[in-house]
Amino acid sequence: MRDTPILNVSRRGVLGGLGAATFVLSVGLPRPGRAQDDEPEFGRDAMPNGWTDDPKAFVAIDADGTVTVTCHRSEMGQGVRTSIAMVVADELGADWERVRVDQAPGEEETYGNQDTDGSRSLRHFFMPMRRVGAAARAMLAQAAADEWGVDVSEVTAGNHEVTHAASDRSLGYGELAAAAMELDVPTGDALVLMDPSAFRYVGSSEIGLVDNMDITTGHTTYGIDVRRDGMLYAVVARPPVYGGRAASYDDSAALAIEGVEKVVAIDPVDFPTEFSPLGGVAVIARNTYLAMKGRDALEIEWEGGPNAEYDSAAYRETLSQAANAPGGTVIRDEGDFDAAYEGAAQTLEAEYYVPHLAQAPMEPPAAVVEIRDGRAEAWACTQAPQVTRLRLAERLGLEKEDVTVNVTLLGGGFGRKSKPDFVIEAGILSQAMDGAPVKLTWTREDDIHHGYYHTVSVEKMSAGLDDGGAPVAWLHRTAAPTIGSIFAPDPKHKLPFELGMGLLNMPLAIENVRAENPEAPAHVRIGWYRSVSNIPHAFAIQSFVAELAQAAGRDPKDYLLEVIGPARLVDPRDQGDVWNYGENPEVYPIDTGRLAAVVEAAAEGIEWGREMPEGSGLGIAGHYSFVSYVAVAAEVTVEDGLVSVPRVSIAIDCGPQVNPDRIRSQMEGAVVMGIGQALMSEITFAEGRAQQDNYDTYLVARMEDTPKRLDVHLVTSHSAYDQPLGGVGEPGLPPVVPAITNAIFAATGTRIRSLPIGDQLRS
Question: 489: domain range?
Fold first, then answer.
């Protein structure tokens, strides 16, 4: 099924709000291919102001029966435009072949939080979208009942029509749309959700991506594809060191190039930079090639700023010293670690290192901004359109209401495109060109040199074992610059949500636990990266558990299950003052039985315990994040110091499964990304400058690195839709790396405690 092109849609009538966010049920937005004054039959004009409930998605129905679902989350390959439409269409009782999808613009007043991150799109909006579909279905049913003069209880809405069995009458949704538009929207007890047993789309693997045909035939629009009449093109020379600036520049050679229109200095903002541009010198030209050629011709003298001496190798030693010294902020303290550690039959220590990483999406950041008559309009591959709108308005000196942000498809994101600095750059340059549309393009080198990096981290682990090899004391010190460093001046400790990603809420059955967070200042822009701080925490914890298993003389899988302990609900409030990613622990306790179940499923999928040839081994790891439970079992082969991963088994329990096909796809993508993290991906800095340039130096997994066999197991412990949904986009990643490194130990006897593996195994 092909969807309609992405376009700017107007603000909808407000139905209500929940908390700080306001959401609406839209029934009546203009559709492509139809005159803008040709309003749909079922639409916003009849919506009473002040209607209150908490729907967070939108529906429009045309006279011909076409249903348009507006998606307010960004599509970057995770299939959210399809999944949201599936949920609404099911509750609406719509015929999937007559459903289309439009993309919402950035508009906080209407859509509330539109940040597509934190694996929240379905986790937070599944029930609200069900209510939206159910409300529209109820209005259509009432309209038909009124038309026939019967009680609404006598009619049934479904399969794109309302029927009255007693009189054998039916009316299509399109025929009823105009009358339904005039009705009050049902709320409270009047809003009846469908029994999930009647779902036709939710839970099905038969629904293909709504964008698939347009993507594969080149008919859809990514940020880098946007074209506007009279558009100019720009690139920016940015300070090579975070916090630096252009002391002086000579643009005469650049301006001498035919086709270069203007050179514009972009002033940086003071620290913390948040999502503001880094500053620098922009070249605007008639095409991107000429802009790049002009940039190459600039002669710029850069001031290094406060981070000019940043060296990632030296900083690793600084982090290591911090992680090995007592006195860091104690963030979790249960039992008596010191006494238990001192009295242990055996003690072990290990230190784990994760380098800076770049999101490096296939499509680098790109945006177009045009300013006309005091209004700015942007087209961008953004994960956070409402934040983009607000920050763009602030930088351009406009009211938020005078800024429109249109969301294109994203050619990957992984957290990079939740920061709108690139859109603001385009706005500054459009303003410099008297409002002409300017496309700002980041090259691959720009993205890798000037991004928001995943934090570098040193994790120091200490444990004491009893006579039977069971852990009785556990210490975890985590030293890593915080994402908070882009928001506040000079913070040196992780934020609560970072600490709550597998560290504070570590659910292992150990009585004496201490966690500490020593200081770690930031020297580069730190930002969200797929699964964020779960990456270093899972790598350290799951690797260390495997090391304890070896010390205890136990099978790693069996030992992991024993350390997870008996099935129980762990309340994160008992483990510290902050919890996993802001979730309410009363609603989302950690179920260790579910964690153990995915470990068992992954192990069974890899045929754990089978005899392995020399140079090959199996490893396993499990992790809880974003309200989902994931375990990975990996098979590796090491030959002449080179690691290959021929087979992976990954199991996930995310609660109710809305779109199983997309769950499998996200798990497969997580495995491939994790292989890259384990084997090759790393950003290093010398004299404050990133040392990697493109995919030839910042290495990511390629087709030859992917497993020959990759099995995804969807574990169902809670299929009822009254249970909380878990996230899918991010939870698959954290256990991949420790599963691989544990397998390397099984194959070679060598422990990998520093990423990436690179040539550590070569003699």
Answer: 312-357+452-748
